[in-house]
Amino acid sequence: MTVFICFVGHDFQRILDGINYYREREPIEAIYLLYDKKKDRYGYASRINKRDLERVLTFAGSRPVSEGINPQSYEEVFSALYRVLRREVTKNHRKVMIDVTSTPKESYGAAVTVSLMFPRVYLYVVPPAARGWYIPMPGTPEYEDWFSKVRSVKGLTPQPIYLPGHRLEQPSDDEEHLLIVLEEHGGRADSIRSIIEWCGEDPDHPAAKNKYSRLVRKLLKKALLQEEISTKTKPVRLTGFGRVLARALREAREEALRAAPPTEVRRVEIPSYLKDELAEEFIEEQLE
C-alpha cells in the first residue's frame, strides 16, 4: 500500500493528474495535503486548491489528511514531513510518494533531505503540458515590463538547505567501470556473464566470476542495480538513480580524458641482436 504526500501551492490539475496516474498502478492507502497556511496571496491560492483537492480526492469515504505549513520554512517543512514519514514508513511499513510539483525551493530541499533518511520514499514532479504560458511574448512591451520586474526582485537572507553529515558513498573504480559499461549497453544485462564480457574479462575464469558477482551484490545493496525475475539467468538493470549516476560518471570520465595532456609517444629502435630480456632493459634505458 502506498501513501501520497502532496504539497499544495498554486497548482491543482497537475497534482490531481499525478494522483490519477499512480492510482492506476498501485493502491493508495492515504493522501496527505500540505498546504500553505500563510495569510498572503500564495496561501490564499493554496487553501482554495486544498479545499477542492479534499473534495475530489475523497475515495470510498477516505478523506485526505490536510496540514497547514509555511512552505518557505525549511525547518517547519522538514519537521512536518519527518512526522509523517516516521509514522507511515517506520511504524506502518508503507511506501511513500511525495509530490513536489507545487512547492518553493525551501520545501523541495527539505523533501529531498528527509527522504534520504527513510527507505521506500520516492519523490516525483508532474511537468506542465505547456510551459511559460503566463510569460508575455519576447519582443513586446509587456515582456520587457515583466522581465524588468522579475529580474529586479530583491532577496532576503539566504536560507541554508541543511544536509546530513553522512553522504552517499562514491562508487569504487570497479563499480564505476561496471556502471558505465552497463549504461553504454542500454542499462541492462541478461546475466553477470554478459557484464564480465563487456568489461573485457574472461567470464569462465573463477576470479572474474567472484569479482563481478561481488560487485553486482554491492550495487544491488546500494540500489544502483535491480534484479529482474528470471528462471535461468539473473538479469540486472540500472535503477532510475543508477542510470542517472552512470551517465554522470561517464560524462565526468569523458571530460577528464579531454582535459588530460596528450600522451607523448616515443619510437625506440631495438637492435636485432638483443634477446628479449636485454631488449626490455635497453628500452628502459632509452626512456629514462
Layout of SSEs?
Elements: E1 2-8, H1 13-23, E2 28-36, H2 41-56, E3 65-69, H3 74-91, E4 95-99, H4 105-115, E5 121-124, H5 141-151, H6 173-184, E6 188-189, H7 192-198, H8 206-221, E7 225-227, E8 236-238, H9 240-259, H10 276-287
Parallel strand pairs: 1-2, 1-4, 2-3, 4-5
Antiparallel strand pairs: 6-8, 7-8
Helix pairs in contact: 3-4, 6-9, 7-8
Question: Can you characterise this structure?
Answer:
The structure is a single chain. This protein has 288 residues and is of the alpha/beta class. It is built from ten helices and eight strands. A hairpin with an 8-residue loop joins strand 7 and strand 8. Helix 6 (173-184) crosses helix 9 (240-259) and helix 7 (192-198) crosses helix 8 (206-221). The mean pLDDT is 89.
